[in-house]
Amino acid sequence: MPELTAELQQEFDTVVRRNPGEAEFHQAVREVLESLGPVIDRRPEYLESGIISRICEPNRQIIFKVNWLDDQNRVQTNRGFRVQFNSALGPYKGGLRFHPSVYLGIIKFLGFEQVFKNALTGMPIGGGKGGSDFDPKGKSDKEIMKFCQSFMLELSHHIGADTDVPAGDIGVGGREIGYLFGQYKKLTGRYESGVLTGKGLTWGGSRARTEATGYGTVFFADEMLKLTGESFEGKKVVVSGSGNVAIYALEKAQQLGGTVVAMSDSGGYIVDEGGIDLEQMQELKEIRRGRISEYADANPSARFVSDGQIWDVPCDIALPCATQNELPLAGAEALIKNGCTLVAEGANMPSTPEAIKAFRANGVRFAPGKAANAGGVATSALEMQQNASRDSWTFEYTEERLKEIMVGIHARCAETADEYGSPGDYVRGANISSFVRVADTMLALGVI
Ligand code: GLU
Predict the structure, then answer these.
(1) Cα 40 to ligand 1 centroid, rounded to whole Å
(2) Are residues 147 and 245 in the same domain?
(3) Which backbone phi and psi does 384 adopt, to 5 degrees?
(4) Contact 292, 265 (CB under 8 A)
(5) How far does residue 97's CA lie from ligand 1's centre (Å)?
(6) Which domain holds residue 28?
(7) CA within 20 to 30 Å of 396's CA: 107, 138, 258, 303, which one?
(8) Confidence of residue 1 (pLDDT cuts 50, 70, 90)
(9) Index of the ligand 1 atom closest to the CA of residue 377
(10) Cα of 93 to ligand 1 centre, how many Å?
(11) Global confidence as pTM
(12) Is residue 415, in this structure, part of any structural domain at all?
């Protein structure tokens, strides 16, 4: 792991001391601080004016109780969170995650990442994140609705089109955003379209928002490939996960000529050497909400593996699109051994620090999530633009804007990495260019 300079180590120690037990948050902060040594050398005023400690402290952290009645009329109690991390660049913006692993440390790591990711898009959005330890798995549609309504009873006090704009993340998709928006509208008596993104197309949603994160990750990877005169054409691709991000990474990788040979869910992974069928995967995961093993049941060409890691499947390109820390050192070693040359993260922080170090040491091109998965939130910002002007754009136009944004993020990361003497280091490029944008804005706005 690259060392921190003495001053940055001190800042990091303070973060660990002030936020005990929040391992994922510490990991996300450390990764950014590790990139900042050369920035502080050039711009010591960042340290002198306390920007590092200010940027690591969320503006506001809200934790609340969510009571709801299940189908047996039993009272259930969950915990809800909204961490409004940084609003230097615009209203807090970031998704809601419903998953049993959610606790404050997860929401803070995601909120922290979101600040930098959103800055990279070049759009006027700050960073925040929220969610609950509610487990949507096995819940009826009615239970999901009741939970969302109860969650919004509290959340509605803290959000607004110009203050904080939540969206989806793991466990929160179009259905949940619908129930949340319905309740917000009922509670406030206002049709405030811009208060949430990821909405349905008949009530203010943006075309291409569902596809945006997965498409964006593939656009980013494609830009990386172009630098060496390559493309997705003829490449074997492994995509972990089978949620929204993974499914649309599959679609775009296929459209660009790649063959996606493996995908996964929490029960295991499937391998289909001829290429995974997009429509079947959509039907299985988006409509039936089934298990990935059922794909192998229905396809003799595919096999299901319930133990082991998807990273053992040989590929040229790996797109981790499931969740944090899903790609450990052993996964990185397997990818490297089998000749994988490019990893672009569709999920938030899926590679562990040790895995990233192994990629670096072995010349694997690596794009961190805050750059490669920024297409989702960027298209949320496009949805906010459409809402503000009461307009609705075509799919083609919106996808074109998304592509331009991803090309721009790639260029910004690559140029910054060059400028700071680390060509090809997208982690450094992403961290430095986004940090400088947020930090300069914070300096301009004064100590507030
Ligand atoms: N949850 C997504 C992310 O991690 C999207 C957030 C949004 O659209 O606001 O960036």
Answers:
(1) 29
(2) no
(3) -60, -40
(4) yes
(5) 10
(6) 6-55
(7) 258
(8) very low
(9) 8
(10) 8
(11) 0.98
(12) no
Task: Evaluate whether 3 touches 353 at the Cβ level (below 8 Å).
Answer: no
CA dist., res. 295 & res. 304, Å (int): 8
Confidence of residue 336 (pLDDT cuts 50, 70, 90): very high
Best of 114, 211, 217 to mutate for ligand 1, by most ligand atoms within 8 A of CB?
114
Of 192, 224, 259, the residue that ends a domain is 192
Pocket of ligand 1 (CB under 6 A): 93-95, 117, 167, 169, 197, 348, 376-377, 380
Assigned domain for 386 exists? no
Q: What is the number of structural domains in the chain?
A: 3
145-162 tens-digit pLDDT: 999 999 999 999 999 999
pLDDT digit string, tens, across residues 195-217: 999 999 999 999 999 999 999 99
Catalytic residue among 93, 129, 236, 370: 129
Give alpha helix (H) positions in 71-204. 104-120, 141-155, 174-188
Cα separation, 68 vs 77, in Å, equals 7
- Residue linked to tokens 């590092």: 52
CATH of the domain at 318: 3.40.50.720
- 3-state secondary structure at position 421: coil
